[in-house]
Each structure stands twice: as C-alpha cells, then as structure tokens.
Amino acid sequence: MSESRKLNKRQLAVLEDLFTGELDEQGVLDKHAVPRSLYERWFADERFSDQLERRIARAYRQSRMILARNAPTAAVRLVELTDCDKEETARKACLDIISLQWPAGYNAPSGAPPLSQAPAPAPDLSPEAASRLLAALAEQA
Asked: Each residue of 127-136: pLDDT tens digit?
C-alpha cells in the first residue's frame, strides 16, 4: 500500500476489533478473513503501524487515568487496612504504604523527594507500631 493512501476498511475494522472486541488477535484475523501473512505485511505500512501505536498509546493513557482517578480511594482503603484485626493483613498494608513509589512516567513535584528514597523502617517494626506511626503521619497531613 502506498504511503499516500488511507487505511482501507478492512484494516480499520481489524484495528477497531483489536481494541474494542472480545476476540484475541487471531480471532480478529479469522473474523475478517485476514491471513497472518497479509497482517504481517500491514506492519510494513507506516500508516497502519502508526495507527496501531496511537491506539496502544491511547489505551495506556486511559488506563493511567483510571488508576489516577481511583488512587485516592485505594490509598484510603490501604490506610484503613493498617488497623485491621488480622495482623498479617495490617502488616502487609503497612509494608505496601512504606514501599510506595511514584507511578512510572509521573514527574514528582519539584523539591519532593522520590518516594523510593524514603528511609526504610527498622526490620523489627511490629504491625501495631507501624499502624500507630501511620496514624500519626495521617493526622499530620
């Protein structure tokens, strides 16, 4: 396919089904009667591969937005779990909070230390002590 032409209806339909359908890649190819060899040739077409990459980037952007939108709820729930009656659950919640890192691709505010460089807690920190420590930190915030 030449560089100046747009994607054909079949290519557009395959791309659409790859991102919105319930079928896996091979299922989409079968549905549209696209042989694997033709599909592989489509990747040599810059317009097809660019469109595919844009769709992938959009899907990741949407995923990051969903995670960012739900991060406050997840953080509150994680802090609540530090006060759980089950010691193992409380301990794991404390460890998760202590080991939090900035999400990949996120630029921390200027002057903010990277979360991964926070001092590590003493290895003998009990779940109760960690819970009290996190409660005190939460009150300060």
From this structure: 777 777 777 7
